[in-house]
Design a protein that fits this description.
Distance between the termini: 83 Å
Strand content: 25-35%
Strand order of the largest sheet: 1-2-3-4-7
Helix content: 10-25%
Shape: elongated
Length: 155
């Protein structure tokens, strides 16, 4: 067998081995998802507080995660539907810990966030399937969201 044929065969075999290793991990991951099995995580999550809606049907869970030395803390808010037990993730995210963050239910279905520096905001999402409307309230920490009446002039 020629050298070129041996190299082609080796490259083919290496590609096949890498494909089956990748495919095996994917199949294992999908199987774990289907069976509801969670593997080890590199991130640690700490619950800070829970805020129950006025009618008691929803809970806003405030917490932060740490994924190691190369990343900063990330604060997040998840909504739990008490009746179904379903948890809706990713409503609100801040860079860092939730030092002065204020979370208030303004009604049975409306949740308001305030008292945080807007430049630390990582994401802000609405998940209408949760049945909760989420909004950001202007506060002294976020005064750049709304300009003062004197700062805008019409020509």
């Amino acid at each position: 067998m020629s050298v070129v044929a041996k190299v082609k065969k080796s490259v083919w075999n290496l590609g096949a081995a890498l494909f089956f290793i990748w495919f095996g991990f994917k199949a294992l991951g999908y199987g774990m998802d289907l069976l509801g099995i969670e593997g080890p995580s590199l991130c640690s999550y700490t619950d800070v507080a829970e805020f129950t809606s006025p009618n008691g049907k929803k809970i806003a869970k405030l917490g932060y995660s740490d994924c190691g030395a190369t990343t900063n803390w990330q604060t997040g808010v998840n909504i739990v539907d008490v009746e179904s037990g379903k948890e809706y993730n990713g409503f609100f995210g801040l860079d860092g810990k939730p030092e002065n963050l204020k979370v208030v239910w303004t009604s049975d279905i409306e949740l308001t966030f305030s008292h945080f520096p807007v430049d630390r905001l990582l994401w802000f999402n609405q998940d209408y399937m949760s049945g909760v409307k989420v909004k950001i309230e202007a506060s002294m920490a976020n005064k750049q969201i709304h300009p003062t009446p004197n700062s805008c002039t019409a020509d």
